[in-house]
Amino acid sequence: MDFTVVLAQIKPKLGCVADNLALVEREIGKAREAGADLIVFPELALSGYFLKDLVPEVALRTDSQEIGRLMELSRGISIVVGFVEETADYHFYNSALYLEDGAIRHLHRKVYLPTYGLFDEQRYLARGASFRAFDTKFGRFGMLICEDMWHLSASYLLAMDGATALICLSSSPARGIEGDSLGSAAAWQQLTSTTALFLNCRVLYCNRVGYEDGVNFWGGSEYVAPSGESIVRGLLLEEECVTATVAEGALRRERISSPMIRDENLFVTLQELQRIMRERGQ
């Protein structure tokens, strides 16, 4: 079915869960008033990104009052939001929730935690261990968190699990600035386009903006059609809510004209992966 999505390219405050929750609530209210069906927030929207030792202080359990409030708000509009999750055994995850009709429809824990350049997530956070598609009122979706999408197997697994739309929450810093061009933006745009094209799926990419510890996040949130075409894209380096109409007809046309997913051979893929594991002695 067709649906309208808002990609909320916001500027969270580092370590300020209450302030960030208030910001998220305001944007949910505005999107709902505008008639949107779904709103997507960036990675770690409730906490900020470069948390380091703040991780335990900002972490929320899924039965917390804050998550409960967002669940209530999801009775009027479906919500995707990133946060630091605390489990009963005191593990902490970079997680994303899909909330719909007052319930948690899906929880994804970031699998690939970057440890290069500016990043040191694995020192403070535990790794997720699965990629699962899930059903929503708008069809079957999959969720990724930033670095997850740079591992091609992650998007592939979700597509093979039936996802027709991939939602990627991101906190991508601005890097590679040369004149008016931005290397990180160009790299992400190529990735989202290629992923959509080769997996015959829609990509909803939501990236944050703002500064933390002198690092600037670049925004550029976008909706990419199954053809690989960017239908709408947010501004660079500025707060903005990007609204897109996701049309079912575009997905149908692309899967008829380029039926790569239909022709994918999971048996061959699994067979060759098992061979590689045997030969590597794993």
| Total tally of structural domains | 1
CATH fold label? Nitrilase/N-carbamoyl-D-aminoacid amidohydrolase
Termini separation? 43 Å
Instruction: Supply Rg.
Output: 18 Å
Notes on the protein architecture:
The protein has 8 helices and 16 strands. By secondary structure, it is of the alpha/beta class. It has a single domain, classed as 4-Layer Sandwich (Nitrilase/N-carbamoyl-D-aminoacid amidohydrolase), CATH 3.60.110.10. The strands form 4 sheets. It has a 6-stranded mixed sheet with strand order 5-4-3-2-1-16. A hairpin with a 2-residue loop joins strand 4 and strand 5. The chain is globular and about 50 Å long. The relative contact order is 0.14.
Give a summary of the structure in a few sentences.
The protein is α/β, with parallel strands linked by helices. The chain has helices spanning 17-33, 55-58, 65-73, 152-160, 183-199, 248-257, 260-263, 266-279; strands spanning 3-9, 38-40, 78-86, 92-100, 103-109, 134-136, 139-145, 165-170, 177-178, 181-182, 202-207, 209-212, 215-218, 222-224, 230-233, 240-246. It is globular, with a radius of gyration of 18 Å.
Give a quick set of tags describing it.
6-stranded mixed β-sheet; 282 residues; globular; Nitrilase/N-carbamoyl-D-aminoacid amidohydrolase; alpha/beta
